[in-house]
Amino acid sequence: MAKLIGMTGDFKGREYPLQDGATAVGRKSDNNILLDHPTISSHHCRIVLEGSSCTLQDLGSTNGSRINSRDVQESELHNKDLLQLGSVEFLVDAPELAAGKTDYVQGDVEVAEGALEAPQDFGSISPFGEPPQEKPGLWLFLTGILGVLAVVAVVAFLAVLFVY
């Protein structure tokens, strides 16, 4: 039996069966699949299951519908497709549907000649910000002060020890 399996947030692990014919999906209670989430429209989409084919039809939703990260208005669904309605993701689990052809986005490749360097304005990618910069003058000064204080403490201790 064809079903949607929730992959994110409060919907993670929940299963929503797809019935033969049209299945309405949205935030209002008159939908077959009720998804109470702010990024889901009142009547977000319709999923039509007919035999071994399944079609998603976006119903003019505010936050859109995506199949495998591609925006769609109407598209065929396949087994193991990743369906995103608003910001909620589902896995299409329908072994009776043929597996879809995976389309990869063609990317541009830039080949660099020679050694690579970080741009001048490149900062740290750490979420904790830039690492502190070493300030050897400050550390040398603090170490000198601590050394002088240690010598004074030892001299004072010895003076007290020999005076009494």
What are the salient characteristics of this protein?
164 residues, 6-stranded antiparallel beta sheet, 11 strands, 5-stranded mixed beta sheet, alpha+beta
Strand content: 25-35%
* Class computed from helices, strands and strand pairing: alpha+beta
The overall pLDDT average reads 86
Order of helix and strand elements from N to C terminus: EEEEEEEEEEEH
Number of DSSP helical runs: 1
What is the percent of helical residues?
10-25%
Mind summarizing the main beta sheet? 6 strands, antiparallel
Shape: elongated
**Strands side by side in the biggest sheet:** 2-1-11-10-7-8
- List low-confidence stretches: none
- Quaternary organisation: single chain
List the helices and strands and how they pair.
Blueprint: E1 3-6, E2 15-17, E3 21-26, E4 33-34, E5 45-50, E6 53-58, E7 65-67, E8 70-72, E9 74-76, E10 82-85, E11 88-93, H1 136-163
Parallel strand pairs: 3-4
Antiparallel strand pairs: 1-2, 1-11, 3-5, 5-6, 6-9, 7-8, 7-10, 10-11
